[in-house]
Amino acid sequence: MNKAADPHQMIQAPSLAGPHEGYMPGFGNDFESEVLPGAMPQGMNSPQKCNYGLYGEQLSGTAFTADPPERTWCYRIRPSVKHSHRYTKIDLPYWKSAPCVDPDLASLGQYRWDPVPHDGAALTWLTGMKTMTTAGDVNTQVGMASHVYLVTESMQDAYFFSADSELLVVPQEGRLRFATELGIIDLEPQEIAIIPRGLVYRVEVLEGPARGFVCENYGQKFELPGRGPIGANCMANPRDFKAPVAAYEDREVPSTLTVKWCGQFHETQIGQSPLDVVAWHGNYAPYKYDLKTYCPVGAILFDHPDPSIFTVLTAPSGVPGTANIDFVLFRDRWMVAENTFRPPWYHKNIMSEMMGNIYGQYDAKPKGFIPGGMSLHNMMIPHGPDKNAFEGASNSNLGPEKLENTMSFMFETRFPQHLTEFAAKEAPLQDDYIDCWSDIEKKFDGTPGMK
User: Fold this and answer.
1) How far apart (Å, rounded) are the C-alpha atoms in residues 293 and 197?
2) Out of 304, 347, 383, 418, which one is annotated catalytic?
3) pLDDT, tens digit, for every residue of 206-244?
4) What is the pLDDT of residue 7?
5) Is the pTM here over 0.90, yes or no?
6) Would the pLDDT of 5 be above 80?
7) Sheet holding 31-34, edge to edge
8) Cα(first)–Cα(last) distance of the chain, in Å?
9) Which strand (E) or helix (H) includes residue 392?
10) Dihedral of CA 213/217/223/228: which sign?
């Protein structure tokens, strides 16, 4: 890995004490953070005059009348209208939005890709984003897109926000810094970040080249799943999500702001850094989360539960029990179920599943699904273990076994996922993936009493 110097230095609020300096714990909390003492108004949101000559501005992530409303009050050097000027449409040819359906491409089937390779090109967060699948419709704010990112260079006096979506970022290699309006998030493999819709940020390379996965969520924002009978503990606990403390730049330098809006990209030229929030409070904020703190639950006697027990985050659809997107994690864990086929079983699913491998080996596909790789099993397309995984699990000694050196995930959606031209023609598709089931044998024996 090559280490890159930070192009800018943001002025941060005093760090919190303890092991998570620079972050505040909790998911969906009402946070507050200020860099300068007294920058945060007390007892009200919009005083006639803010201290230090700051401007008060609200960033709303929901309608005002949502229950509960999600919003953050920002106290900034300039209002956002000063970070917006005339826009020029630009093209980022590899970043696609739904609907993006090419009638000449077949999205029906089982697909798997090797890691998208680094080719030596100079790529930023924007130019290195390559869409694999799209689902739903960005204009009606339903569905998602899945991407792989390749990043080698920091954004220099360049900033971005998406009006279309929140982004769930899953690094696979390299380290990135997300310098946002509300503070700094440093991100590395085995962590994730959630960047809210409408939040301005710059991405810097701390260690590169960097590669990972992105789930672009057009619909309702991600939330923690209801645990139901599991109760109050395990899975992803709210306290393990970390929001950044306030940080700001006061830099007078020509800058570019790129906006994603209804699937199109536009640039505006401004004369300063837009990361100028000196204090903020609210419940609409970016987060990071350490996937190693995810506490899986499972069967402790017999049978293999549904993979929904491994849900880290879910984005509701409005249909009870059916998500717009689920983010599901398969990490190391103990397998103890008796008289049970322990790997994922063969199935067809109303949900469409895009999987990625962060590191190690996935138990249902011990060969071919390598770190950085992806697979797609679209709605109602059958899939499951290959022959070796089936035979091994069917004949193994069912003592307690710990799965180790494994971390894979799934972006699961109720919408069919359509391949982009990049995924179908340029990404390293494993043409022989479908053959991993070809040698599965007929074992049927109609003799009474046979197993």
Assistant:
1) 26
2) 304
3) 999 999 999 999 999 999 999 889 999 999 999 999 999
4) 52
5) yes
6) no
7) 31-34, 277-282, 71-76, 55-60
8) 53
9) helix 387-395
10) negative
**pLDDT tens digits, 74-115:** 999 999 999 999 999 999 999 999 999 998 898 998 999 999
Instruction: Judge whether 347 counts as a catalytic residue.
Output: no
- In sequence order, the 6+-apart residues with CB closer than 8 A to the CB of 137 are 98, 99, 143, 218
Residue with tokens 């990972």: 212
Which amino acid would we find at residue 22? G
- How do strand 158-162 and strand 255-261 relate by DSSP bridges? parallel
Alpha carbon distance 33, 55 (integer Å): 16
Q: Which long-range contacts (CB under 8 A, 24 or more apart) does 390-393 make?
A: 390/343, 390/440, 393/341, 393/342, 393/343
CA distance 344 to 342: 7
Share above pLDDT 70 across residues of the chain, in percent, rounded to a whole number: 96
Which domains can be identified in the chain, with CATH numbers? 293-433 (2.60.120.10)
Give the torsion sign (CA, 162, 165, 168, 169): negative
Edge to edge, the sheet with strand 322-335 lists 110-113, 374-377, 352-360, 401-413, 322-335, 311-319
- Residues shown for the chain: 451
Q: Which residue type occupies 318?
A: G
Strands 241-244 and 2-3: unpaired
Which residue matches tokens 């179920």? 337
- Per-residue pLDDT at 156 exceeds 50: yes
pLDDT value at residue 21: 67
Q: Which residue from 168, 451, 198, 442 is spatially nearest to 324, judged by alpha carbons?
A: 168
Secondary element (H or E) of residue 410 = strand 401-413
